[in-house]
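Lab notes, practical 5.
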Amino acid sequence: MPSTPLLIPAVLSLLLMTSPGAAASRPAQSWFSQQGYVTPAGHRIIACHGYGCSRRLALSVDGAWFGRARAALKAGQGSPEAERRALGDVIRTYTAYLAASFGGKPDDPGSPAGMSGVNGQMDCLDETANTTSLLLVLQDEGLLAHHVVEHPESRGFFFDGRYPHFTAVIAEKRTGSAWAVDPWAKAPGQRSEILPLDQWRQDS
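Output from the prediction step:
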């Protein structure tokens, strides 16, 4: 998540609010109120773009797209691994759906600094909000058989040589093992990263 000196205090404040110890005791929904974002209601989400959710678009994730997502997740309920594969497919099509809904130039992966404020461009905070919104909708619909949606997590603190970066998180119901769900480095329509959270934390 690229940053500028003006953003450093704000991002450091976000990191303090999303530290692993603090996150463990709060539901995913609390993250939205902490950031001043809007939680999903039913199938309606407020999609973030423009970096830091500076632009917002109300969307309803239903109809034919949601029917396909439902079918994919139902088919993937045989195991946690199968469910994560199905989630990867669902989120891949979701990012394409978001790009079409925003209009204009599709999101450039990795949030280049020069695209801040541009319609349809998303930094890691936008991606985290949008992904967590979808995961909460899927959870509320009873479509996550093996996972629960957790409080988003962060890595990087500037002084450790890494830019701060955020991700949506799910955890296996049976084992409690946490997984990062992170489409930030991928273009819309590409398969997002779903990897163990500890591994995600170690990446740069």
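Observations recorded by the TA: The chain has one domain: 5-202. The first helix runs from residue 8 to 17.
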